[in-house]
Amino acid sequence: MKGLTDIPGLRVGHVSDYDGLTGCTVILCEGGAVAGGDIRGSASGTEEFPTLDPGHITSRVHAVVLAGGSAFGLEAASGVRRYLEQKGIGFDTGAARVPIVPCAILYDLSIGKAGARPTREMGEAAAAAATTEAVKEGAVGAGTGATVGKIFGMRQAMKSGVGSATVALEGAYTGVLVAALAVVNALGDVVDPATGKIVAGARRSPSSREFADTAQVMKRGARGGFRGQNTTLAVVATNTRLSKVEARKLAEQAQLGVARAIRPVHTMSDGDAVVALSLGEAQADLNALGVAAAEAVAQCILRAVRLAPTLGGVPGLAR
After folding, report:
1. pLDDT block averages, 10 residues each, the chain of length 319
2. Which of 16, 34, 77, 88 is the most exposed place for a label (fewest CB within 10 A)?
3. Beta-carbon neighbour count of residue 256 at 10 Å?
4. What pTM was estimated for this model as a whole?
5. Segments forming the whole domain that contains residue 247
6. 208 lies in some domain
7. How many domains does the structure of the chain reveal?
8. DSSP state for residue 74 in the 8-state scheme
């Protein structure tokens, strides 16, 4: 399957800066999508997230932007708004159509060039490059400079990136899809939920491939990576019809996938955030969708590290 673009009405585009090791990823839903959001980390950086609240006047979003560059990367969303405005897409205010574009960022300033950040032009280019083809994964877009396992700093971390996956429901819900895309830049280690074993994370030394086990290290008092420089961002989408309240609940349920695949997670140094999108008219129980969403997000996180190559001197699992 193609990942997030399995959901009709969605397109995904990346722009990557391999010199500065940063980038941005744009998820376009030009026809509009009912959306909800959930933030569990304490070091988040976002823009327009209040539009995801059920009480907000806007009923739909038109794109979601994920970007590197820390708070500087929020500028990429301006380029996406400009792209959509030129196409006449947005919330009708009477005087103009204003594109609703929530954006979330991650911190990647310590792997490449600290002065390299996603710009408005990069955001616009990523929107223009968005396609319904299979989602490109690994060290691309917002995942270009993503890393995991940073309790001892970058010298003992591992490379990560973007992952995407789809879960198809069965039986009475045949035809219902839940797909996800995640950008993994976590303080903690990525673990395989099926085995509980670490797949990528903090290493015992800069030259070692033996895992230190961040959770155990933390319990012994290590505090080296306790800075707000980590975040896992995910977008979950379904072809079922949801209200904004239900979309927010789906985002909350999808966070369980983050918790299953990253250990520890939702720390004071992570900005973990999920956006859920509803496009389509299919029907399914929200609880079933939540189970599928958590499964899809966990798969995305595993793919993000398994498909990431070595970059910036940080070792990756992909060859």
Report:
1. 97 98 98 97 95 96 98 98 97 96 97 96 98 98 98 95 98 97 97 97 94 94 72 98 98 98 95 97 97 98 98 94
2. 88
3. 16
4. 0.96
5. 4-306
6. yes
7. 1
8. G
